[in-house]
Amino acid sequence: MQEFYTPAGINILRDAPHDHLHHHGLMLAYSVEGINFWEELAASGRQQHLEFGKCEIGRDAQDPIAAISEKIDWVNPAAKEVLLCEQRTLTVEISPEVKATLITWTSTFTLPPGKSQAVIGGAHYNGLGMRFLESMDRDETKEFFTAEGKEGTIFRGEERLVRSGWCAFSSQAEGKPVTITMLAFPENARHPATWFTMQKPFAYLSATLAVHEEPLVLRGEETLTLHYGAAVWDGHPEAEEIEKAYQAWLQAQSQKKENANRKGDSL
């Protein structure tokens, strides 16, 4: 995802910066069976697009939404082997309770036919990650914060890991105050999420499963569903306002899941 705009129209994402060409705005990647899907080297894995689902534009309950889904195979190019199958859905949501641009990212993983298991691992920053504008990197007032106000533990240098339901990053984008918050659904594996944060040499935020400590193994007919939200505000909302938005998002997602279960669909 290359563009993510505040309500005032400021895009806070940066795609393929010169220092890390494989950073693509908002992106999801891990290592699978030892194949690195985060980087873009000759031996790296490929997320291969298969097809788009229908694009939905309309209203969900009383609020307008737009959603698009995609089927993706995670492929080991050297062996020409599919390691994971993913159903990915991105939803843009508008809610009177959340004064921000809000998206929901849902990825459901299954094994391809004939494969008995897949080991999901990777670096401490692998997961759903976000690279920001260069001006946001340069802002000396920028900060990360969570609901509990925890800074987290230092992993190395400026890199920290912190567990929480949400993690926010406030900065200046081209001289204008903005705040981005990533949200984790409680039914995700290993909730609360382990957030990776880094301020220098550039700012980065990602929702991880801490697979660097303990790889996650998907077996047989199991499914792994990861459900995250991201909200971007103009200005610097207080933690209380972000928590209110998080609770509103949780309530909306729980209601959608209940409605989907009644229809026999997946979230």
Explain the overall architecture:
- The protein is mainly beta.
- It has a domain at 26-31 and 86-263.
- Helices cover 11% and strands 46% of the residues.
- Strands 4, 5, 6, 7, 8, 11, 14, 15 and 19 form a nine-stranded antiparallel beta sheet that branches.
- It is globular, with a radius of gyration of 18 Å.
- The two termini are 20 Å apart.
- The model has no long low-confidence stretch (mean pLDDT 93).
The low-pLDDT segments are none
Return the string of H and E elements.
EEEEEEEEEEHEEEEEEEEEH
User: What structural class is derived from the secondary structure elements?
Assistant: mainly beta
Alpha carbon gyration radius: 18 Å
Largest sheet: 9 strands, antiparallel
Distance between the termini: 20 Å
- Anisotropy-based shape: globular
Mean pLDDT: 93
SS field, number of helical segments = 2
Q: What is the percent of helical residues?
A: 10-25%
State the total count of DSSP E strands.
19
Strand content: over 45%
Entry keywords:
single chain, 267 residues, six-stranded antiparallel beta sheet, mainly beta, globular, 2 helices, 11% helix, nine-stranded antiparallel beta sheet
